[in-house]
Amino acid sequence: MSTIRTVIVEDESVTARNLIHLLGEIAHDIDIVSTLSTVEEATTWLAGNESMYDLIFMDIRLADGLSFDIFKRINIDKPVIFVTAYNDYAITAFKNNGIDYILKPFDGEEIDRAVNKYKRWIGSATPQVLPVFTDLAAQIGNLSKSHKKSFLIHYRDKLIPVETAKISWFYTANEIVYARTNDDRQFVMDFTMEQLEQQLDPDTFFRANRQFLINRRAITEVEFYFNGRLLVKVKPIAETQMLISKARVPEFKKWMNT
Fold first, then answer.
1. E strands within the chain?
2. Transmembrane region positions (predicted)?
């Protein structure tokens, strides 16, 4: 088989680098032609470079929305391997439709399996791709019943149950993720921010930026900030400013108004 020209759509730089590294180790016939990080960026690049790629590795939740928004804007007839933290309940139908997925955290064996499945797929009669995305989007829309209601957290020499509703926000610092509760306690979490984002109810928690996931009940006020951004004030008071980027302001306002 000739070189597989591959695009990666992933907003977590660490995940993107790890994926590129593992692809280079186990699939020498893969050429990474572009790495994209947002819905907007991916929509623009994919629309203008249809003949430049054969395969897409794509995360489901990006910084500016769900990757399914890309397929609403442009027609993509190339196969996609989703790289996602969603559990099997959401992707069972997708897996049965002939394209594959890699569940985070992933390893070389998972990537090797997915690439080999693509090679078998491309060598057979090509199925319709777009209906698969539609089916998977519908499945993900039903994830509400699986949202985390509580966490069992290691604290000193104990395991402490903490209700999700009592967590004001999650934040990351020096590659460690913390939870701050509404009674101003702080705990170290055994999850990445992306894993937390996939497990939490999106009606309750909003990914303000790469550093913060905020519970709407913790928000006391929102101020206009420089360059079209918003400054979110919370209780308990955070030591670091919680800023909403200009690009995410419309999504944040919509979220707050629901």
1. 4-9, 30-36, 55-59, 61-62, 65-66, 80-84, 101-103, 150-155, 158-163, 167-173, 176-181, 186-188, 205-207, 212-215, 219-224, 230-234, 242-244
2. none
